[in-house]
User: Fold M42 glutamyl aminopeptidase from Abiotrophia defectiva ATCC 49176.
Amino acid sequence: MDWTAFYDLPALSGDEFDLHQALAQALTDQGLSLYRDQLGSVLGLKPREQAPFRVMLTTNLDENGGLIQAIRPDGLLDFVALGRYQKTDYVNQVVRLLTRDHVPHLGYGVLVEGQPYLALGAASAQQVADLGIQVGDSFVLDFSRRQIAGGAWLGRNLANRASLELILDMSRQLQDKIAYELAVGGISQSLVGTRGAITATNLIQPDLALVLDASPVPASDYDPKCLYLRYFDKTLLPNTALLEAIRKVAQELGYQVKGQVQEAGTDGAFIHKTGVGAPTLVIALPLLQSPGLYQCLDPASFEPVRDTLVAFLSQLTPAQVQDFGFGSRGGGPHDH
Assistant:
């Protein structure tokens, strides 16, 4: 796998085709059967007869960016921002516009009469049309992953690309060692309302789910050798029994465990509500000084996540999965 190229693939919400295809190939290379929904999510698993349960290990595919909504006579492009950033955030930023056939063109954000637009170096709408750009085409930031001081990475969308790299690595280590089914992959359209989470989860129907994410951590609490578990966001209360089980495994491996809290949710918002409910936990890679469009991630933070989850998933039993359920904590005589 060419990870530099993988991290650089554009994947705006609803237009994740390039990343979808690369991930599908990586899953196929591991000998996994592909499961795709109709929104762009792609997961792989190794089917097993009479598998006792199914675990889902995922992250999102999509990144922030926007869609062209109008082309002005002077060649400037009006756009709508998709994801968690505002239109003004793209002023003075270099962007990569993609035609319907994903032919890339560089552009940049400008502020004209107080309004943000994208410029391509074109002086008329016809010049824009000659480039093959039309209303509805997408764009993302044009910024490739690079290494900065101390060995950390700086990039535009490290959160899910790093998570996908980790997921593929863990899958490679686990698929031939477990008796249950482990579905791994990426979910589409997460930044625009966890839409793919609904379709992908209905497709997989997991009994337990782990979601990888990345979150800014204050410098005072930052440690790339620490495991960060999501204690709360507005869309998901973690399964406490699952959280404690993973915490115990991490501590037995010698890793410190810290709780992480944030406002924004993840695909876990829907995954934990599938069927009668799937115990779900979010594991967060720590981002340092990453409040805006760019993210800073130390690849050393992979180690505690990979070691802990591989150990946990290697020893996971049907009894444990059953014990993570709410009913196992004591129900009434009419439980079904």
In short: The chain has two domains: 4-63+157-325, 65-142. The first strand starts at residue 33 and ends at 36.
